[in-house]
Write a structure and sequence with these properties.
Helix content: 55-70%
Number of strands: 6
Distance between the termini: 216 Å
Largest sheet: 6 strands, mixed
Number of helices: 8
Protein backbone atom coordinates (compact mmCIF):
# COMPACT_ATOMS: atom_id res chain seq x y z
CA UNK A 1 0.00 0.00 0.00
CA UNK A 2 2.80 2.37 0.82
CA UNK A 3 4.61 1.47 -2.38
CA UNK A 4 1.58 2.37 -4.48
CA UNK A 5 1.38 5.77 -2.80
CA UNK A 6 5.04 6.44 -3.47
CA UNK A 7 4.65 5.53 -7.15
CA UNK A 8 1.61 7.79 -7.46
CA UNK A 9 3.50 10.77 -5.98
CA UNK A 10 6.45 10.28 -8.37
CA UNK A 11 4.02 10.09 -11.31
CA UNK A 12 2.38 13.39 -10.37
CA UNK A 13 5.75 15.11 -9.95
CA UNK A 14 6.93 13.83 -13.37
CA UNK A 15 3.81 15.03 -15.13
CA UNK A 16 4.09 18.47 -13.49
CA UNK A 17 7.72 18.79 -14.57
CA UNK A 18 6.85 17.89 -18.16
CA UNK A 19 4.01 20.44 -18.21
CA UNK A 20 6.21 23.22 -16.90
CA UNK A 21 8.83 22.45 -19.56
CA UNK A 22 6.22 22.67 -22.30
CA UNK A 23 4.91 25.98 -20.92
CA UNK A 24 8.42 27.43 -20.78
CA UNK A 25 9.03 26.34 -24.36
CA UNK A 26 5.75 27.89 -25.48
CA UNK A 27 6.59 31.22 -23.75
CA UNK A 28 10.04 31.25 -25.33
CA UNK A 29 8.52 30.82 -28.77
CA UNK A 30 6.04 33.56 -28.11
CA UNK A 31 8.78 36.02 -27.02
CA UNK A 32 10.91 35.01 -29.96
CA UNK A 33 8.33 35.96 -32.57
CA UNK A 34 8.23 39.78 -31.89
CA UNK A 35 12.01 39.86 -31.72
CA UNK A 36 12.30 38.12 -35.07
CA UNK A 37 9.62 40.37 -36.51
CA UNK A 38 11.44 43.49 -35.24
CA UNK A 39 14.71 42.16 -36.71
CA UNK A 40 13.04 41.53 -40.03
CA UNK A 41 11.47 45.00 -40.01
CA UNK A 42 14.77 46.64 -39.18
CA UNK A 43 16.48 44.66 -41.90
CA UNK A 44 13.80 45.68 -44.35
CA UNK A 45 14.23 49.33 -43.35
CA UNK A 46 17.96 48.95 -43.75
CA UNK A 47 17.52 47.49 -47.17
CA UNK A 48 15.13 50.23 -48.17
CA UNK A 49 17.51 52.84 -46.79
CA UNK A 50 20.43 51.40 -48.72
CA UNK A 51 18.39 50.97 -51.90
CA UNK A 52 18.75 53.80 -54.47
CA UNK A 53 16.06 56.47 -54.33
CA UNK A 54 13.49 56.56 -57.09
CA UNK A 55 12.88 59.60 -59.31
CA UNK A 56 9.77 60.59 -57.32
CA UNK A 57 11.75 60.42 -54.08
CA UNK A 58 14.52 62.54 -55.57
CA UNK A 59 12.06 65.20 -56.82
CA UNK A 60 10.03 65.35 -53.57
CA UNK A 61 11.41 68.03 -51.22
CA UNK A 62 12.33 67.05 -47.72
CA UNK A 63 9.73 68.22 -45.21
CA UNK A 64 9.04 67.71 -41.59
CA UNK A 65 6.09 65.67 -40.47
CA UNK A 66 2.97 67.79 -39.82
CA UNK A 67 2.34 68.76 -36.20
CA UNK A 68 -0.40 66.89 -34.43
CA UNK A 69 -3.84 68.45 -34.64
CA UNK A 70 -4.83 70.31 -31.48
CA UNK A 71 -7.49 68.83 -29.33
CA UNK A 72 -10.94 70.37 -29.00
CA UNK A 73 -10.08 72.05 -25.72
CA UNK A 74 -6.85 73.65 -26.98
CA UNK A 75 -8.03 74.49 -30.53
CA UNK A 76 -7.45 78.16 -31.51
CA UNK A 77 -10.50 79.76 -33.18
CA UNK A 78 -10.29 81.36 -36.61
CA UNK A 79 -9.03 84.93 -36.81
CA UNK A 80 -11.72 87.59 -36.47
CA UNK A 81 -10.38 91.12 -36.92
CA UNK A 82 -11.87 94.47 -35.97
CA UNK A 83 -10.33 96.96 -38.40
CA UNK A 84 -10.28 100.69 -37.72
CA UNK A 85 -8.67 103.53 -39.65
CA UNK A 86 -7.64 107.07 -38.71
CA UNK A 87 -6.90 109.51 -41.54
CA UNK A 88 -5.95 113.20 -41.40
CA UNK A 89 -5.24 115.03 -44.65
CA UNK A 90 -5.37 118.43 -46.36
CA UNK A 91 -7.69 119.08 -49.30
CA UNK A 92 -8.31 122.00 -51.64
CA UNK A 93 -11.88 122.60 -50.51
CA UNK A 94 -13.34 121.03 -47.39
CA UNK A 95 -17.00 121.46 -48.34
CA UNK A 96 -16.57 119.76 -51.71
CA UNK A 97 -14.41 117.02 -50.16
CA UNK A 98 -17.11 116.26 -47.57
CA UNK A 99 -19.69 115.82 -50.33
CA UNK A 100 -17.32 113.52 -52.20
CA UNK A 101 -16.62 111.44 -49.08
CA UNK A 102 -20.35 110.97 -48.51
CA UNK A 103 -20.74 109.78 -52.10
CA UNK A 104 -17.83 107.32 -51.74
CA UNK A 105 -19.28 105.97 -48.48
CA UNK A 106 -22.66 105.38 -50.10
CA UNK A 107 -21.05 103.66 -53.09
CA UNK A 108 -19.21 101.27 -50.76
CA UNK A 109 -22.47 100.32 -48.93
CA UNK A 110 -21.45 102.27 -45.83
CA UNK A 111 -22.94 105.12 -43.84
CA UNK A 112 -21.87 108.31 -42.06
CA UNK A 113 -22.50 108.47 -38.31
CA UNK A 114 -20.84 111.84 -37.58
CA UNK A 115 -19.87 114.94 -39.54
CA UNK A 116 -18.84 118.26 -37.94
CA UNK A 117 -17.73 121.34 -39.91
CA UNK A 118 -15.69 123.86 -37.93
CA UNK A 119 -14.26 127.26 -38.96
CA UNK A 120 -11.50 128.24 -36.57
CA UNK A 121 -10.71 132.00 -36.56
CA UNK A 122 -6.96 132.55 -36.39
CA UNK A 123 -6.79 136.36 -36.43
CA UNK A 124 -9.03 139.42 -36.94
CA UNK A 125 -7.87 142.94 -37.87
CA UNK A 126 -9.96 146.12 -38.28
CA UNK A 127 -8.69 149.24 -40.07
CA UNK A 128 -10.49 152.57 -40.72
CA UNK A 129 -10.51 153.24 -44.46
CA UNK A 130 -12.68 156.38 -44.42
CA UNK A 131 -14.49 158.69 -42.03
CA UNK A 132 -17.51 156.42 -41.85
CA UNK A 133 -16.16 152.98 -42.93
CA UNK A 134 -14.02 150.20 -41.47
CA UNK A 135 -12.31 147.23 -43.20
CA UNK A 136 -12.41 143.98 -41.18
CA UNK A 137 -9.89 141.30 -42.23
CA UNK A 138 -10.40 137.76 -40.84
CA UNK A 139 -7.97 134.83 -41.17
CA UNK A 140 -9.58 131.42 -40.51
CA UNK A 141 -9.13 127.70 -41.13
CA UNK A 142 -11.94 125.34 -42.16
CA UNK A 143 -11.86 121.70 -41.00
CA UNK A 144 -14.31 118.83 -40.88
CA UNK A 145 -14.37 115.74 -38.66
CA UNK A 146 -16.22 112.65 -39.92
CA UNK A 147 -16.84 109.12 -38.69
CA UNK A 148 -17.71 106.48 -41.28
CA UNK A 149 -18.80 102.84 -41.09
CA UNK A 150 -18.03 100.73 -44.16
CA UNK A 151 -18.04 96.95 -44.72
CA UNK A 152 -14.79 95.31 -43.69
CA UNK A 153 -14.14 94.04 -47.22
CA UNK A 154 -14.47 97.59 -48.65
CA UNK A 155 -12.20 99.38 -46.18
CA UNK A 156 -9.10 99.48 -48.38
CA UNK A 157 -11.07 100.65 -51.42
CA UNK A 158 -12.69 103.42 -49.40
CA UNK A 159 -9.38 104.64 -48.02
CA UNK A 160 -7.78 104.72 -51.46
CA UNK A 161 -10.67 106.77 -52.86
CA UNK A 162 -10.53 109.24 -49.95
CA UNK A 163 -6.76 109.74 -49.92
CA UNK A 164 -6.83 110.32 -53.69
CA UNK A 165 -8.44 113.72 -52.99
CA UNK A 166 -5.75 114.78 -50.53
CA UNK A 167 -3.00 117.24 -51.34
CA UNK A 168 -1.09 116.30 -48.20
CA UNK A 169 -1.57 113.32 -45.86
CA UNK A 170 -0.73 113.92 -42.20
CA UNK A 171 -1.84 110.59 -40.74
CA UNK A 172 -3.04 107.30 -42.25
CA UNK A 173 -3.28 104.63 -39.56
CA UNK A 174 -5.01 101.25 -39.85
CA UNK A 175 -5.47 98.93 -36.86
CA UNK A 176 -6.54 95.29 -36.81
CA UNK A 177 -7.52 93.74 -33.47
CA UNK A 178 -8.14 89.99 -33.27
CA UNK A 179 -11.20 89.42 -31.07
CA UNK A 180 -11.68 85.69 -31.72
CA UNK A 181 -10.71 84.77 -28.18
CA UNK A 182 -13.03 87.42 -26.75
CA UNK A 183 -15.94 86.01 -28.72
CA UNK A 184 -14.97 82.50 -27.64
CA UNK A 185 -14.94 83.66 -24.01
CA UNK A 186 -18.40 85.18 -24.42
CA UNK A 187 -19.70 81.97 -26.01
CA UNK A 188 -18.28 79.80 -23.24
CA UNK A 189 -19.75 82.13 -20.64
CA UNK A 190 -23.19 81.84 -22.20
CA UNK A 191 -22.98 78.05 -22.35
CA UNK A 192 -21.75 77.80 -18.79
CA UNK A 193 -24.48 80.08 -17.50
CA UNK A 194 -27.12 78.23 -19.54
CA UNK A 195 -26.08 74.90 -18.04
CA UNK A 196 -25.99 76.40 -14.55
CA UNK A 197 -29.40 77.98 -15.08
CA UNK A 198 -30.86 74.65 -16.20
CA UNK A 199 -29.50 72.85 -13.14
CA UNK A 200 -30.66 75.67 -10.89
CA UNK A 201 -34.16 75.53 -12.36
CA UNK A 202 -34.32 71.80 -11.76
CA UNK A 203 -33.13 72.33 -8.20
CA UNK A 204 -35.78 75.02 -7.63
CA UNK A 205 -38.53 72.77 -8.99
CA UNK A 206 -37.34 69.88 -6.80
CA UNK A 207 -37.02 71.83 -3.57
CA UNK A 208 -40.69 72.59 -3.28
CA UNK A 209 -42.17 75.93 -2.32
CA UNK A 210 -39.92 77.05 0.50
CA UNK A 211 -40.00 80.82 0.20
CA UNK A 212 -36.53 81.61 1.55
CA UNK A 213 -34.59 79.06 -0.49
CA UNK A 214 -36.65 79.69 -3.63
CA UNK A 215 -36.13 83.46 -3.44
CA UNK A 216 -32.35 83.15 -3.03
CA UNK A 217 -32.15 80.65 -5.88
CA UNK A 218 -34.24 82.85 -8.15
CA UNK A 219 -32.02 85.86 -7.42
CA UNK A 220 -28.93 83.81 -8.27
CA UNK A 221 -30.60 82.67 -11.45
CA UNK A 222 -31.46 86.26 -12.43
CA UNK A 223 -27.84 87.31 -11.85
CA UNK A 224 -26.58 84.56 -14.14
CA UNK A 225 -29.16 85.50 -16.76
CA UNK A 226 -27.97 89.12 -16.58
CA UNK A 227 -24.38 87.96 -17.11
CA UNK A 228 -25.53 85.85 -20.06
CA UNK A 229 -27.36 88.80 -21.62
CA UNK A 230 -24.36 91.07 -21.13
CA UNK A 231 -22.07 88.52 -22.74
CA UNK A 232 -24.48 88.21 -25.67
CA UNK A 233 -24.69 91.97 -26.13
CA UNK A 234 -20.89 92.29 -26.05
CA UNK A 235 -20.62 89.51 -28.60
CA UNK A 236 -23.15 91.23 -30.88
CA UNK A 237 -21.17 94.47 -30.55
CA UNK A 238 -17.97 92.68 -31.54
CA UNK A 239 -19.75 91.03 -34.45
CA UNK A 240 -20.97 94.43 -35.68
CA UNK A 241 -17.46 95.90 -35.42
CA UNK A 242 -16.08 92.93 -37.34
CA UNK A 243 -18.63 93.32 -40.10
CA UNK A 244 -18.33 97.12 -40.42
CA UNK A 245 -15.02 98.93 -40.04
CA UNK A 246 -14.87 102.41 -38.48
CA UNK A 247 -13.02 105.25 -40.22
CA UNK A 248 -12.25 108.52 -38.41
CA UNK A 249 -11.54 111.23 -40.96
CA UNK A 250 -10.18 114.75 -40.37
CA UNK A 251 -10.18 117.06 -43.41
CA UNK A 252 -8.74 120.59 -43.43
CA UNK A 253 -7.60 123.18 -45.96
CA UNK A 254 -5.16 126.07 -46.12
CA UNK A 255 -6.03 129.20 -44.08
CA UNK A 256 -8.42 131.58 -45.83
CA UNK A 257 -8.86 135.37 -45.60
CA UNK A 258 -12.05 137.39 -45.91
CA UNK A 259 -12.44 141.19 -46.01
CA UNK A 260 -15.67 142.91 -44.97
CA UNK A 261 -16.51 146.65 -45.17
CA UNK A 262 -18.29 147.79 -42.00
CA UNK A 263 -19.78 151.16 -40.89
CA UNK A 264 -17.67 153.20 -38.49
CA UNK A 265 -19.79 153.61 -35.37
CA UNK A 266 -16.99 154.76 -33.06
CA UNK A 267 -16.59 158.38 -34.39
CA UNK A 268 -19.96 160.05 -33.96
CA UNK A 269 -18.77 163.45 -35.15
CA UNK A 270 -18.80 162.12 -38.67
CA UNK A 271 -22.57 161.78 -38.50
CA UNK A 272 -23.23 165.27 -36.88
CA UNK A 273 -24.78 167.99 -39.19
CA UNK A 274 -23.01 171.21 -40.14
CA UNK A 275 -23.22 174.66 -38.44
CA UNK A 276 -25.78 176.20 -40.75
CA UNK A 277 -27.94 173.17 -40.49
CA UNK A 278 -27.77 173.32 -36.70
CA UNK A 279 -28.54 177.15 -36.81
CA UNK A 280 -31.61 176.60 -38.95
CA UNK A 281 -32.74 173.85 -36.62
CA UNK A 282 -32.22 176.20 -33.65
CA UNK A 283 -34.37 179.00 -35.22
CA UNK A 284 -37.09 176.49 -35.94
CA UNK A 285 -36.90 175.18 -32.41
CA UNK A 286 -37.08 178.74 -30.96
CA UNK A 287 -40.11 179.57 -33.05
CA UNK A 288 -41.77 176.43 -31.81
CA UNK A 289 -41.01 177.39 -28.23
CA UNK A 290 -42.42 180.95 -28.77
CA UNK A 291 -45.61 179.58 -30.21
CA UNK A 292 -45.95 177.23 -27.29
CA UNK A 293 -45.41 180.12 -24.82
CA UNK A 294 -48.02 182.36 -26.48
CA UNK A 295 -50.48 179.53 -26.48
CA UNK A 296 -49.77 179.01 -22.80
CA UNK A 297 -50.48 182.68 -22.05
CA UNK A 298 -53.69 182.56 -23.98
CA UNK A 299 -54.77 179.48 -22.16
CA UNK A 300 -53.88 181.06 -18.78
CA UNK A 301 -55.58 184.48 -19.19
CA UNK A 302 -57.91 183.90 -16.24
CA UNK A 303 -55.05 183.12 -13.92
CA UNK A 304 -53.12 186.10 -15.19
CA UNK A 305 -56.12 188.46 -14.69
CA UNK A 306 -56.71 187.15 -11.19
CA UNK A 307 -53.07 187.70 -10.36
CA UNK A 308 -53.20 191.30 -11.65
CA UNK A 309 -56.28 192.03 -9.49
CA UNK A 310 -54.65 190.60 -6.40
CA UNK A 311 -51.52 192.64 -7.06
CA UNK A 312 -53.48 195.91 -7.50
CA UNK A 313 -55.52 195.34 -4.35
CA UNK A 314 -52.42 194.60 -2.34
CA UNK A 315 -50.67 197.71 -3.63
CA UNK A 316 -53.67 199.94 -2.86
CA UNK A 317 -54.06 198.57 0.65
CA UNK A 318 -50.36 199.05 1.38
CA UNK A 319 -50.48 202.71 0.25
CA UNK A 320 -53.46 203.49 2.47
CA UNK A 321 -51.76 201.88 5.43
CA UNK A 322 -48.70 204.10 4.93
CA UNK A 323 -50.77 207.25 4.69
CA UNK A 324 -52.75 206.43 7.80
CA UNK A 325 -49.58 205.79 9.74
CA UNK A 326 -48.01 209.09 8.55
CA UNK A 327 -51.12 211.14 9.60
CA UNK A 328 -51.04 209.67 13.08
Amino acid sequence: MKASHVVLCFSILYLGACGSKQDAKRVAQTNQEPVSQAISDSSTDKVNFLAPATQADQEAPASLSPPPAPSEKSAIPDRQFIRTADVKCRVDNVAKAVDRVEQITAQQAGFVILTKLDSQINDTETVAVSADSLLETTHYTVSNTMTLRVPNAHLDTTLRAITAMATFIDVREIKSDDVALQRLTADLTRRRNAAHDKRLQQAIDGRGRRLGETTAAEESRLNHQAETDEARINDLSLADQIQYSTVTLNLYQRPLTTCTLLPNGTDRRVYEPGFFTQAADALATGADILVVFILFLLKSWGIILFGIGVFAAATLGLRRWRLAKAGV
